[in-house]
Amino acid sequence: MLTAGTAALVTALGLVSPPVAAAESGSSPDVFSENTVRQIEALQSIKKSQNAGESKVDSRLLVEQKLRDRRMSASAVPALGSGANVSAAGTVLVDIRGQVSEELLKGLRESGAGIRAVSQRYGSVRAEVPLNAVPVIAGRADVKKVETANEAFTARQLAEPAIAGKRESKEEKAARIAVELKKAVDAKGQPGIAAGPVNSEGDRAHNADTARQQFGVTGVGTKICALSDGIDSLATSQARGELPAGVDVIPGQEGDGDEGTAMLEIIHDLAPNASLGFASAFNSDASFADNIRKLRFDAGCDVIVDDVLYFKESPFQDWIIAQAVNDVTADGALYFSSAGNEGNVTDGTSGHWEGDFVDSGKGVGKFAGTAHNFAGAAGNQIFEPLSDASGRVPVTLFWSDPLGRSNNDYDLYLLNAAGNVVDFSQDVQSGTQDAYERVDTTGVAGLRLAIVKFSGEGRYLSLSALRGRFSDSADGLKAYTSPGVTVGHSAARDAFSVAAAPAAKAFPRALEPGDPANPAGPFPGAFGVTTKVERFTSDGPRRVFFQADGTPITPGNVSATGGEVRAKPDITAADGVSTSVTGFTTFYGTSAAAPHAAAIAGLVLSGNPGLPPADVREALINTAVDILAPGRDNSSGAGVILADKVLAYTGASPQPLASAGQPTVTPADGGSALDPGDTAKVTVPVTNRGDGTATSTSVVLSSSTPGVTVAPRSKSYGTISPGQTGVNDFTITVPATQELGVPVVLNARVTFAGSFSPTTSTFSLPVGTPSPVTQDFAYAGAAVAIPDSDPTGVTVPITVSGVGRASKLTFSVDGATCNADQTSTTVGINHSYVGDLVGTLTSPSGAKATVFQRSGSSGNNLCQVVFADNAATAFSSVSSANAPFTGTYKPVQALGGLAAGTADGTWTFTAADVVGGDTGSIRSVSLHVNGFVQPAVAERPAGVGKSVGRGPVKPV
């Protein structure tokens, strides 16, 4: 028997799950069963009764807590899974949005939280918190929202479906990578053992190989940087010769996984002389946005590419990640992103519908609101059916309200064939929240979705089963789909959204049972008019209603006729290509396509330095080979790009790139050091690392240090061929009043005939005779635990006094007795997985240097390790076999850069464990400082000679 409330809800929703019992066998498909209505009513009762603090908590977290506290009976929702993902320890991973401060972080730690990522700029903290602490955290005035952690995935398409629960452990992965690295190192220089370089078939399919030969450009002078999951096998790829040394990784942002390594290999295949960089996109959504900005504004990347989608990225407004993309493109960077593997309407692979809310016209009774009618004018259907193969996929619901300002409240319910609520999302939207709900499908058949407008006005809706499919059901429900599943930062105005087309072999499996065969690519030929996109590639266009700041694009119209329509994806590039990376030997998905496009853009910039981004876009779009339907289409954009056509359109020529290297200083008095009052010969090398010959090369050498003279001011270096170095001598005079330890700063400006001219370099020449006496300063406190998986780490002080300016710095991790016992109290740093650690030394002036960074794999403990700039071996070369780690190593960043000011004051050393699962402590660390010999002690010849070097260029 139906209650008044349930009867009203039945009337409102107007649908029923397929009959599963005799009592329901005669029910209409347009009516909910009493069981279904009772469960939705129970969930909505919680929403109606929650207090102000609870309204700031993700609805799935709130219901999970009430179930565990027995404030709600599990029998009321018997099939409901835990959307909260509560760990065995009773913790949940959450994103805390609000005002980020040390006070907030302190409060979170006191509540038992482990900090995973912090973004001041975007007001977000990712933390692992006890479920029972969530209400206290939400009750803070500086907390706006506590959300289940916003998840993400890359746009890699697995050739074999992932097996639930099958994941390589951290230890297993470390052991595998160690074996692969050793094999790669051992194979160097041994004919018949090394297999030789693995090259992407996309290099040939895009005509990039012939374009490099025809135009003589290789990526020189450009820096191309990737964001993905991680670069676990970077060292292995470098040892194999698949990647160059010197990949610029943002400290602590190496990530976890190897999709980034595979992307970098693709870029290097097509643009072999471009500089490379990387940062992880997987610490949190806000960390991803921060890293986009760091790659441009800190690392100087010209081209940036990613393959990641965070599920909360709005289709209707540029959220924080897209805003970061806007920031770097406004600064002149080119940004490429995977269009996604969420399917398209043309191939019948889409799980996306969007359109105006259609009121079913029936009230919900005791609860406000009505259900959405997907059929619209064609009938009355309030369910969207999912295909039986759409198991374990996220389903997102957005509506056209500005981010952080939604006062129209929509909810999303997922039901199974028995009419039970399987998952739900019913957050409060009361004027300060995001217009967003999300559920996750299970691995069962017969699932369907319902949207309920709980309160407010009708809005334009976007419903996406990401990597799932909407499909007609066996009980007569019709699937409604529409184009436009490409969302988020890939759809930013100035980003390039990249679709995928196979370069070689067809994707080897059906996306769902009964699907037609997947297309194959042209390799060893090139892409052409018959090229087909992958059946999984995401389609556009993307309708957007708000500017990034929430300003309406069409004020008063947020319906299907409002906003702006962005033509996405933009272009198509290759996937299904080879790399040397384990797990990516054949790399499918728009994850593989985007780096091909980014590399071709790098070739364009290399042959046309300073070409405006608008001109690069024009060239890529106008030369793309039109495929599929004539003209621009929703699946391939303008078409598939070819490197030779793009370079012919822009014009391109091999460019020289000459720059000055570190000068050699020879004091005229024969001394070993440059002292106050000295005259010295300064030999300045200039190397041409470009593709073209540097002609009319000259150097202007100047100094910003008061009283320092340079003679002559300029010298000609003539012609320098690619790969060659020329040298010339200059003379500098240091004033007798120059303070010991204050360096002479030289500025070398190299001019030559070429678009990269001029280049500038700055060098610091130390002044004074280094003291042979090393003074040692140690951390004197008790052992301090390093928090697990916390990027803020733990910091210890080292106080330095009586030195003045430093001539030399070394840092050591000490210890009395070295061993590999992870609980040892006699080592400098005991830790059960040194490869999780990032060590940073900070001077009293605030200058920082990364000492070690995610090296050592699963090895335990650092003990009696000295980090010195002149060491022969980099610590990045160690493996777990070297544990416990001892000896002298070169740090990641030179410590000499910290010696610019006085050494006296408080230094700090920070150790951060950036990966979960292991623990340790800082026990004993030291700083070793050499000052300068004072003038009364130093022996100086009475006479000072003068030496002026003159051309011609002396080849090295």
Give an overview in words.
It is a single chain. The chain contains 15 helices and 47 strands. With 956 residues, it is an alpha+beta fold. α8 runs parallel beside α15, α10 runs parallel beside α13 and α13 packs parallel to α15.
SS content category = alpha+beta
Unreliable segments (pLDDT under 50, ≥5 consecutive)? Answer: 1-29, 937-956
Summarize the biggest pleated sheet. Answer: 7 strands, parallel
Number of helices: 15
Topology readout:
Blueprint: H1 4-13, H2 34-49, H3 59-68, E1 91-98, H4 102-110, E2 114-119, E3 124-130, H5 134-138, E4 143-148, E5 152-154, H6 170-187, H7 201-205, H8 208-215, E6 223-228, H9 234-239, E7 248-249, H10 259-270, E8 275-280, H11 285-297, E9 303-306, E10 308-310, H12 320-330, E11 334-338, E12 352-356, E13 370-371, E14 384-385, E15 394-399, E16 409-415, E17 421-425, E18 436-440, E19 448-455, E20 460-465, E21 496-502, E22 542-544, E23 564-566, E24 571-575, E25 577-578, E26 586-587, H13 590-607, H14 613-623, H15 643-650, E27 658-660, E28 664-667, E29 679-688, E30 694-703, E31 709-711, E32 714-720, E33 725-733, E34 744-751, E35 759-765, E36 770-778, E37 784-786, E38 790-800, E39 808-813, E40 829-831, E41 837-842, E42 848-853, E43 862-867, E44 885-889, E45 905-913, E46 920-922, E47 925-932
Helix pairs in contact: 1-2, 8-15, 10-13, 11-12, 13-15, 14-15
Quick overview of this protein structure:
The protein is α+β, with helices and mostly antiparallel strands. 17% of the residues lie in helices and 27% in strands.
